[in-house]
Amino acid sequence: MTAGPPARVRINGAEQAPDAAVVSVFDRGFQYGDGVFETAALIDGCVREADAHIDRLCRGARLLGMPPPEREGLQADLTAMGEGVAAGERAVVKVVYTRGSGGRGLQPPATPRPTRVVMRLPWPGHPAAWREQGVRVISCRTRQMSGAALDGRIKSMNQLNHIVARMEWTDPEIAEGLLCDEDGGIVEGTVTNLFAVREGEVVTPDLARSGLPGVTRGRLLEVAASLGIPAQERPLAHDELGTADELFLTNSIVGVWPVRELDGRAVADGRPGPITRRLQAALEAIYAA
Amino acid sequence: MTAGPPARVRINGAEQAPDAAVVSVFDRGFQYGDGVFETAALIDGCVREADAHIDRLCRGARLLGMPPPEREGLQADLTAMGEGVAAGERAVVKVVYTRGSGGRGLQPPATPRPTRVVMRLPWPGHPAAWREQGVRVISCRTRQMSGAALDGRIKSMNQLNHIVARMEWTDPEIAEGLLCDEDGGIVEGTVTNLFAVREGEVVTPDLARSGLPGVTRGRLLEVAASLGIPAQERPLAHDELGTADELFLTNSIVGVWPVRELDGRAVADGRPGPITRRLQAALEAIYAA
Predict the structure, then answer these.
(1) From B34, B148, B157, residue closest to A182, measured CB to CB
(2) Is A182–B147 a contact, with Cβ atoms under 8 angstroms apart?
(3) Could you read off the pLDDT of B229-283 as tens digits, one per residue?
(4) Given CB atoms, is A168 within the 8 Å cutoff of chain B?
(5) What ipTM was assigned to the predicted interfaces of this complex?
(6) Is the pLDDT of residue B152 over 70?
(7) Is B147's pLDDT higher than 60?
(8) Exposure winner among B21, B135, B179, B187, fewest CB in 10 A?
(9) What is the location of CATH 3.30.470.10 in chain A?
(10) Residue A159, Cβ neighbours under 10 Å: how many?
């Protein structure tokens, strides 16, 4: 892990010392998890895919009946996060957007005054080999919440189910855990989206009932199309993973991680497959441009 | 609404001015909803059913792999909330117990240092008629999250699904909304448990797959047993509600609310039924003792 820029926090546009960056205990984000968030890569002082993250944050807010974040203010926060970041330095930017304080119990206030928290956090110290040689992954026993709620389909502050899934392993050699719905359909990893390659075709769960369509997932599908690699979103049964030619994971921080092992068994020959490699290289080329 | 005692907040046992009662933005309660809570009635300076609430908080913490709250400290907080409360005054006490700060992303820290927030809040201003003549209730379109997650079975800080359900109505004459699972089984209200009376028997959803067994629900079942009124926990289809002889709701703040109208149609003759009345009176007698 390269040393990155120091932590930084802005709340509603005002700079805060990270150690003293606080919110009211009455904020509905703390009381109920009533809000949404985004996590993005800060590379060379710029937030990667900033527009896509802002759009998704706005969409989530709208679905929750919250006024959308003030774009100029949020953009100014993101710009501030890039200040003083040297070339080659990396950090994570997290935006939390809550409904603020007020309301009567669960009932939101008629005119919410949201709380916007923007944080600059250390880049995670994943081994470089994970990107290059692939990662080990397990299937979680914890089930994804099904079709019911908005929770699984927006990037909400309600992350307890995924925390419970993440607690299923402590082995630092395991990079990720996959969640299925109650019918055995793959939904997503705890912090990633999953792709399988079968007979030259890329498949990713359609997330029609649950699951969060990641920004990098969306970009990856575009990249596949631009390379002429057939790709489709459809229900993907866990049973199909064992016979896949390749598996890989995506998210906004790690980009593409080839999966070399699932539940202790090698995926194909245990090395990143050719389509994974092509997509990973193409995505990295876009982001390096 | 009678004027109640002023708001009060203690964080990890230290008194805070409510306007300045804050938690770190890095607290996992704020970041992820990683914690549990309890809401209880403070009557004449005492927290009603304090032991049952503390027990449930401890159980929830244990299920989440958190160290349980230090009982003496929590008990001291609850005692403090009762100080200066005059006879006849009422307030709500809410306890929030989070995993504190730390960890790597979703992965909790190996040795969590939880955050305990205890708040004294105003008693809600529900009309007295709701207890006496019954309430109007709707069926929510929002579905309860099913069997999947712990979220629905412990009193977690992830309340977004119930907030979305609560946002389905703004008419102040509607007291509560009911949530069904995806199979049309009644689970619970947004902040209450539901009971039906059919041919002299009391029925409440068994909450085997989802739903929170309330402290007052548990007490009500004991009261029914002590009065010789047959009561059972079993799956309860929404379709059964239309033909029920009586319906009522319970929670720790309101006690028993008869339901006089469901989705715009009177329940039986639109007046609280005899078994509801008996159980309500018996419960209130226990709490008045």
Answers:
(1) B148
(2) yes
(3) 999 999 999 999 999 999 999 999 999 999 999 999 999 999 999 999 999 999 9
(4) no
(5) 0.96
(6) no
(7) no
(8) B21
(9) 8-122
(10) 24
Find the residue in A nearest to B22 (Cα): A24
Q: Does the beta carbon of B139 lie under 8 angstroms from any beta carbon of chain A?
A: no
CB contact A121 to B (< 8 Å): no
Average pLDDT over residues A213-242: 97
Distances (CA, A) of B283 to A125, B47, B250: 56, 16, 11
Q: Is the confidence at residue A16, as pLDDT, over 80?
A: yes
Nearest CA in chain A to B175: A107
Cβ distance of A149 and B164 shorter than 8 Å: yes
DSSP of A211-229: ----HHHHHHHHHHHHHT-
Contact of A153 with chain B, judged by CB distance below 8 Å, is answered with no
Q: Outline where chain A has alpha helix (H).
A: 28-32, 50-63, 71-82, 128-133, 160-166, 215-227, 274-288
B106 to chain A: closest CA residue: A163
**Phi, psi of A104, deg, nearest 5:** -115, 105
- Mutation target vs A (from B63, B106, B252; most A CBs, 10 A cutoff): B106
A192 touches chain B (CB under 8 A): no
User: What is the residue-wise DSSP string for B28-56?
Assistant: HHHHH--EEEEEEEEETTEETTHHHHHHH
Tens digit of each residue's pLDDT (9 = 90 or more) over B53-100: 999 999 999 999 999 999 999 999 999 999 989 999 999 999 999 999
Paired residues of A96 in beta bridges:
A37, A117
Summarize the confidence of residues A144-158 as an average pLDDT: 74
**Is the Cβ–Cβ distance between B190 and B165 less than 8 Å?**
yes
Q: Are A60 and A100 in contact (CB under 8 A)?
A: no
For B28, which residue in chain A has the nearest alpha carbon?
Answer: A30
Which 47-76 residues of chain A touch chain B by CB within 8 A? Answer: 64-65
Ranges of CATH 3.20.10.10 domains, chain A: 128-288
- Mean pLDDT for the stretch of residues B102-114: 96
Give strand pairing partners of A15. A10
Contact A149 B142 (CB under 8 A): yes
Q: Is the pLDDT of residue A1 over 60?
A: no
The whole-angstrom separation of Cα B172 and Cα B30 is 30
Tell me which residue in B9, B34, B148 faces A25 most closely, judged by beta carbons.
B9
CATH number of A128-288: 3.20.10.10
The kind and range of the H/E element at A188 are strand A186-189
